[in-house]
Structures are given as structure tokens and as C-alpha cells.
Amino acid sequence: MAHKTMLKHASRPEPICVSTETIGDRSSREYRVTVGDRTLEAEIEIAPDGSGRMRLAGKVVRFFGSRRGDDIQVWYGGRVYDFKIADTRQSAGAVKRSAMLPELTAPMPGTILRILVGDGDELVARQPLIIMESMKMEMTISAPAAGRVKEITCAEGELVEMGALLVRLQVSEDDDAGDEEAGENEAQNA
Question: What would the CATH number be for the domain defined by 2-85?
Fold first, then answer.
């Protein structure tokens, strides 16, 4: 039986259908995955902490995933991808507004290297907030929209788990968030 989910990514105007189906019996780790009109078969292992390995075309790739409500973050191939489970009945504006998260979480386990803002600071969209390191890779956590820092909930040097709350934000109600890429976390090799 296939499981279908509509996901919204900031770089795409419309949600895309992602379907997963187990190949073989229910205990199998082999899946047929369809994203839009592209289908592939992969062996996927997922640990309870959201980390996993995927064997695709003979190559093994590590990934991390985190879900909070309708928000999903996936670290794959050195980049972090932010998705929202889309309700296709919502208008595009409602999906865009709901993607402006009031809380930012760690996309993977790692160490907080630098905190670039403080409680009460005003923010612009895509402003760098926190730099963290994981698996010898630095990642910048940025503001998803203009607003204000309500609370920093981590400290420099702290080791955090994937999904740990890092920053609480107060997002401006009148922010247009016209840039489709606002709020994406950028990963760079250290």
C-alpha cells in the first residue's frame, strides 16, 4: 500500500506529491519512491532519532530528518531542505504565511559554534542567526522572515540534538516574504 503526502518547498510554487510504497513484505526496507513524475527504488533504514541510510543505485547516502507538526527538515548531501506538509485546500498565500515558523530547531545533531543575535533583536528575512557544526560541516540557521528574536534557547559550545529548539521568533504580520528562498538554511563544507 502506498503512502502519499503533498509537500511544499519554498523554491516551488505548487506542492508536489511524494509517494512511498514498500516492496515485498511489511518488514522489508526496500521502497519505491515517487516524487512528482520520477520513480526510484531504494533501500532505506531509519533510526528512531531521525538519522538514516539510503542505498540508491549501489551508493549509500546518510541523511537526517526531523518533523515538528507540519514542518519537515531533511539533511541530505550537505544541504538542509525545509518542507511543509501542504493542505491543497489552502491558498498559496496561506501556505507561504504558515511556512514562517515562530520557532527554529536544529536540523541535525551538532554543536552551536556562534550565536549572531540576542533576545529582542530585530531581524530581516534570511538574516543569519546561528552557526552550528555537524559532521565537519558548518550550517547557518537563518531567519525565515522579518521579525524579532523572542528568545535564544541555546548557548555557544552547547551540543544539541536534532529537533532541539534553538530560537523563538516573533514574525512580522505585514512581512511580504516575497523572496521564495527566505528561511532556507544553507550548509557549507567546513
Answer: 2.40.128
